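TICKET: design request
STATUS: open
ATTACHED STRUCTURE:
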């Protein structure tokens, strides 16, 4: 399957890019819903990490619903050795009603009622065959954050949690040994950054590693592979 040439006709709304809502993220992070102090920053982090997840899954244009045109090349026997004529649309999920037009070759319309569509994955099979080039215009993707699958919401939440943990460590992680003294008492302690090099450091590293592994597992079924 070759990678298509994609042009966005109607982009997603700027306020509908994140995989998890601000309200749900606050529940996850145990932030009081009435506390709006960091709302703008939290929403920015949600959107940024949702974009990172899209890149990880080879969905470079993101998860949000938008109208696009896709031009597919080499979809005949050469790229589909099993003889089937099929493509995987980049902006899944896709409903049949949201497919505006299919042309194969471009300029020659195909009746969309003759195709087989798997809405969740965006997979299309052309039982009657197709040319080596297909042009399709449609609207697909998720209306975010409401339609985001629960596993993608979880992945986004894990990403934000890890980001905030690392940011907090960086903010408090000065170097050097700290000493508190009062009369005859002495207390020494190390910053989180200092601990990263010692025996007690592995906990944060292991936690980050587990989080990354969990995110990758959640993304598996959403990842696209091109040849």
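STATUS: resolved
RESOLUTION: sequence designed for all positions
ATTACHED SEQUENCE:
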């Amino acid at each position: 399957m070759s990678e298509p040439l994609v042009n966005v006709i109607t982009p997603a709304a700027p306020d509908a890019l994140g995989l998890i809502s601000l309200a749900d993220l606050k529940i996850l992070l145990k932030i009081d819903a009435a506390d709006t102090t960091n709302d703008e920053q939290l929403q920015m982090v949600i959107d940024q990490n949702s974009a990172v997840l899209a890149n990880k899954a080879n969905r470079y244009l993101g998860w949000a619903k938008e109208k696009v045109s896709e031009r597919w090349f080499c979809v005949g026997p050469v790229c589909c050795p099993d003889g089937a004529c099929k493509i995987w649309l980049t902006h899944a999920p896709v409903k049949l009603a949201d497919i505006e037009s299919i042309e194969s070759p471009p300029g020659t319309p195909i009746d969309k009622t003759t195709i087989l569509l798997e809405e969740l994955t965006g997979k299309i099979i052309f039982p009657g065959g197709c040319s080596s080039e297909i042009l399709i215009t449609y609207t697909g993707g998720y209306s975010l954050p409401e339609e985001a699958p629960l596993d993608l919401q979880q992945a986004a939440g894990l990403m934000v949690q890890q980001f905030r943990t690392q940011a907090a460590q960086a903010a408090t992680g000065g170097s050097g040994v700290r000493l508190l003294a009062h009369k005859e008492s002495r207390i020494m302690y190390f910053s989180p950054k200092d601990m990263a090099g010692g025996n007690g450091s592995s906990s944060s590293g292991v936690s980050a590693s587990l989080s990354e592994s969990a995110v990758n597992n959640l993304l598996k079924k959403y990842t696209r592979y091109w040849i």
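CLOSING REMARK: Strands lie at 5-10, 66-73, 86-88, 99-103, 116-118, 123-125, 133-140, 177-182, 185-190. The chain has five helices and nine strands.
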